[in-house]
Structure formats: structure tokens, C-alpha cells
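Possible race condition, two jobs.
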Amino acid sequence: MVCTGNICRSPTADGVLRHLITEQRLTNQIEVDSAGTQSYHVGEAPDRRSQKHALRRGYDLSNLRARQMKSTDYAEYDLILAMDRSHLNYLKQYCPVEYQEKLKLFLSFTAQTTEQEVPDPYYGGDQGFEHVLDLVEDACQGVLQSILKTR
């Protein structure tokens, strides 16, 4: 999961997908991580508002720490999901040709929305964080179903 600073959207998606994987007892089979396109917040915990809203729904993000996308991530991960088009464009710019098929918009896995991008809640209020969670929960279900179909 990739967003800008790796403190709001991508760690929320990371935490929700980890939760679903744990519920399905697949933690030894599926690895999840998140990163940012920028290094603004490397080493920091997710935004306190992201953590608060996620925890209300049963997702603990407190152990996650922001990191920046690395060149080795393209080879290491089977699926690299961008939270919006600017992230996807960034990833495409730095991704080796042989790994381009791994890059997708995160919301391409949703079943309940026509939105294509996860909006950045950083400068908004509580409703923005709740909306991100709604989108993330929907897309994470789709991501997990897609992974299970290809196994």
C-alpha cells in the first residue's frame, strides 16, 4: 500500500488488510506492508487521528512505522497498490519494466464504490478519516479475495 507520507491512507489499508489476514489465519502465507512516496515521516507512527478512527473499528495501527518506498520493493512484493493516481504515476516512473504489472490503484479492488482514489484525510476532519476507512475496508476485502483466487 503506497501513499505520500505513509501516515494516513497506506497504514490504514495496511492495518485493515493485516486484520483480515489474521482473521482468516493466513499470516504465514500473506505479507503486507506500506510505504510512502516521500520521506517526510520516516520512522513515525501513523497519524493519531488515523489510529483513533481505526481503533474504533477494531484495527490497531500503533505498531506501524512510516517508511519510504525502496527500489527493492518492486521485486519483493507481488502487488503494489497506490492510494491515488499521483502515487501510481510516481510508482510507474521508478518501477522497472518487468514489474509494472504489479502496480494498481487500490480502489480498483472495491465492490461498493465508484471512487477511484482514496482522498487524503490529513487536512480534514473526522469525517474524512471515517470515509477513508469505509473505502479501505471495501478495497481490502477485494484485495484479499483477489489474492485467494490466484493461489
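Job #2 (started ~2 s after job #1):
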Amino acid sequence: MGCFFICSPKFLFFYLLIVQSFVSETISFEDNKPTAYEVLMDFNFPAGLLPAGVTGYDLDPITGEFSAFLNGTCTFTLQRTYKLRYKNTIRGYISNGKLARLEGISVKFLFFWVNVVEVSRNGDELEFSVGIAGAGFPMDSFEDSPQCECKLICNDQKVRKIREIPFVSA
């Protein structure tokens, strides 16, 4: 009687059915994982705080440690004044209305890039802190995720002509 019950075709069929059901549930759970943009909204931030093209993220629900991943460095201009740069990995700690100990986001100030260390929500404003200084922006400035600026490669095609400079002779 040693292997009869465990080795029977009926047992094997039910075993495979149960395993397949478990694997299907695991896969569907992974498919239902919220996006990085949805995670931001769960913590009362607008989705546009992250640029378009986030490829994935990690979130530790206990510590609030949060990382978002991009295909590369992303630069864009905010309100036609501030130039922001996101590295390919952005890290920090997220809680309700606060992103602290940020790494991977910087803003151009005059001729220098300065690290953004914290973003907090204050009513309908987002306050960006670089440590000794900060700036506030209306939340509606971040309704849509900004597109990264195109440098030499746009839509997977190299830009052939950047600018034509006419030849001037004297």
C-alpha cells in the first residue's frame, strides 16, 4: 500500500489542479499590484509627481521605504521656470502627505543642480525642500505625469539634425 494513494492518477490530477489554482491566484495577485502612480495617490500625492515612464517600484509597507525606477535619467521643466532631473532610481520614505529622505531628484538653481530632499503636501500645495530652502507649487501642476525631454534619441530614433546653422561669409 506504500505508493498507491499518493501515486494514483486521481491524486495526481487533484494535486495538479490545486497547484494550478494556487499559481493562478499568485499570478493574478501580481497582476493586480497597483502602479507607482496609484501608490502616490494612496498617500495623498498627485500621480504627476513622477514622470511618465516609470517601469516599476518597490514599497516596504512597514517602513514606508519607496523606490521608483525609470529607463534612464529624465529631465523636464516645471512651470517654464524650474528644471527638474530624475535619476533612473528615485528613493525615499513615503507616508501620508510626505516624501522624506529623497534621493535621485534634483532641481537646477542658477547654474547648479541641488538635491530635493523632501516633498510634503500642505493643503492644495506641494512643497519641495532642498534643505535650506524650498518652493511651493499648486497640486494641479502635477495632475499629469510630465514627459521627459528629448535629447538625442526620441521615440527610439536618433535625431539626425539638431539645428542647422547657416554659413555666413564676410
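The CA atoms of residues 83 and 139 lie 17 Å apart.
Logs attached separately.
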